[in-house]
Sequence to fold (311 residues):
Amino acid sequence: MQKETESKQEKKLIVKAFIALFILTIIWGYNWVVMKQAVQFASPFQFAAIRTFFGSIVLFVLIYLTKRPLALKEFPTMLVLGLLQSCGFTGLLIWALVEGGAGKTAVLTYTMPFWVMLFAWPMLGEKIQGWQWLAVLFALFGMVLIFDPLHIKSDGFSMFLAVCSGVSWAISAIVSKKLHHRAPHLDLLNLTAWPMFLGSIPVVVIAFILPAQPMQWTPTFIFAVLFNVLLSGCLAWVLWLYALQRLQAGVASMASMLAPVIGVIAAWIQLNEVPNTYELIGMVFIALSLVTISGISIIKHTQIDPAQGQE
Fold:
């Protein structure tokens, strides 16, 4: 009975993790449009500095109000996470949006799951098995179609930045997973706030050093700042780390691939970035990958061992 109870609790945690992933994919998916609009009123590093620095301040306030542990622990790892997440992931993707379309930048940044699959095998021992290969093939084929390699030279630098952003995000996912294994009781808000704050420092310095036009505090820009600080910069990262702690790194990454599909659709509707036929087919394959990898994970974690059912 005790094993059966533990199994039911594990099922609930898995379901909650996928719900967290679904919410954050909606936030991160639509945020590509929000960020694309924001860089019209500020330089990429100015916007990245505001998003990361003030996002961390909001998280510290939440930590204080909820009386959670505020002390900085695991400093070297926290610093590495901050550089990967704030400078690598956030800074590079916002820079990529300056010269590239929101939809394509979103898709290229989400090459992240493939880098996670690559690094998680030797670093975490999370092998790709069985039907997971089918999900990988669906995702790979979808990415190739949306990537449109025949026209890569038209905005090559923006694409390069977007891919580098995805690589940085993937490595941060591996580092986060290893940190959770080493310090499983580390508070989730603390784990989100400190890397964001530490990583924001070099971004702020770069924003001050690089020449740029003064920021224009229009209603659109103010909305973008609030959306990024409160939702995309704080809530979504908490949801991401919550899901990452309860799912395999590869599973969490593949499931989050719904975000670029949302980004492409939102850019199509709001920014008139109309995807071509290949891009539409690519989105379908990415959706199939999402359904496959999520279904495999849910079935795997909800099956009860026959010996447990006989107790």
Remarks:
- Residues 117 and 128 are 7 Å apart (CA to CA).
